[in-house]
Amino acid sequence: MRGCIAAYSAPVSLSSAKIVCRSKSLLFQFKNSSPFTSLTTTSIFTTRRPFLSLSRSQPNKAKQKQKLWEFNCATIPSSSTVENPYSDFVVVNFYRFVHINDPLEEVAKQLSFLKGLDIHGRIYVNEQGINAQYSGPSKDALAYVEWLREDFRFSDILVQISPALNGHAFPKLKLRYKPSLVQLEGGISHLPLLDPTMRATPLAPSEWRKRLKEVHDSNCVVLDVRNGYEWDIGHFHGAQRPDVDCFRSTSFGESNSEEAIASDPLANVDKEKTDILMYCTGGIRCDVYSTILRQRGFQNLYTLKGGVSHYLQNEGPVEWFGNLFVFDDRLSLPPSAYNPEDSTVSSSNSQGCKNILFAHCYICGSQVNELRHRNCANIDCNLLFLCCMDCVKDFKGCCCLPCTSAPRLRPVLPGNQRYKKWYMYRELEVQNELTV
């Protein structure tokens, strides 16, 4: 794992124990108050933050009188890694369809609570519920969740949490009323989203995993309710690439022309006998679109509860190939970001490397080594695309040759950086001209 240089284990015959890194700073502390004889703890260090797991181990009859703690602790190169100011930052995602009588009052109440908290992101509220994606230090990020859960309307929200190792994943906080919690042609206010019977039946991650293994032996379609560029860096086995660049224009199940039918996984399927297994990143797009499919006569609709992020957290990357696209500054997350303690992640990923062949450079068609998109350096194009490093260099960060000579060209970004507002590059250009 990146950032780990060693690992060790040792028994500790104490009633309590402390584990420290090289800088002698306390990482965690526990006391022997458990009913079992020994405990195995595992601390896994990624580049910036540790993860701790605790597991029971069988008692040793020869040492029943001596209580042992066994731990595995990966050490890191220097204390500066631990002291990274963003090590505690997380991204939180959740949504809830519930009637809100006065959404403007709800927005004002939530804005009042968030004053003083270091939270950036997009939080939308309307009469049909709430949809939130935001980043911040874990203390602030989770304080908002706990406060929200005190309201009976939001007490059972399913929250997805992932690390934000570079700090905030959103530029600022936008908490406001929005007519549609997700963007879809014609809006969604007319859809029966508050009626659970009109939405797809949610499947727990374990059940979803089981159903995927049975897909080839049953009358079933795995429907990716995302955009094509999301599929390009990661998807479930058996899912067809969506011929969609924006969820707003999704039209599965209503194709008429021959060209549209060829790219529609639901074209010509038996609406009464075919099982439709729907999935998206966090679940909200599936819930929304399943009500549309229900109105079009599709009977057997199922959705992955909590989306892909919830699945990776609980089941690991089994039946999943690649990374997960996310709509924030991180753009792409490996499965290990959601389940760093799962020992099956590394073995599944080593097997999955053979299946990474689905990811190709937008320009030359060669296989890409990094499952992460970049925006075209031409701000007036701004296309989100996959690109090999050779083409990044040859095309100056652009998606095609014409864009390389565009008047508003941004510099090539190294690593995982995202572009800033255009005026920042324009001001830098003016300063350089003055210096010359």
From TrEMBL:
* Xref: InterPro entries: Rhodanese-like_dom, Rhodanese-like_dom_sf, Rhodanese_C, TrhO, TRHO_N
Ranges for domain Rhodanese come to 216-320
SUPFAM superfamilies documented for this protein: Rhodanese/Cell cycle control phosphatase
Q: Which domain of life is it from?
A: Eukaryota
What Pfam family is a match, any one? UPF0176_N
> Which stretches are transmembrane?
none
Matching entries from PANTHER family are given as: RHODANESE-LIKE DOMAIN-CONTAINING PROTEIN 7-RELATED, THIOSULFATE SULFURTRANSFERASE/RHODANESE-LIKE DOMAIN-CONTAINING PROTEIN 2
Q: What is this protein called?
A: Rhodanese domain-containing protein
Species of provenance? Salix dunnii
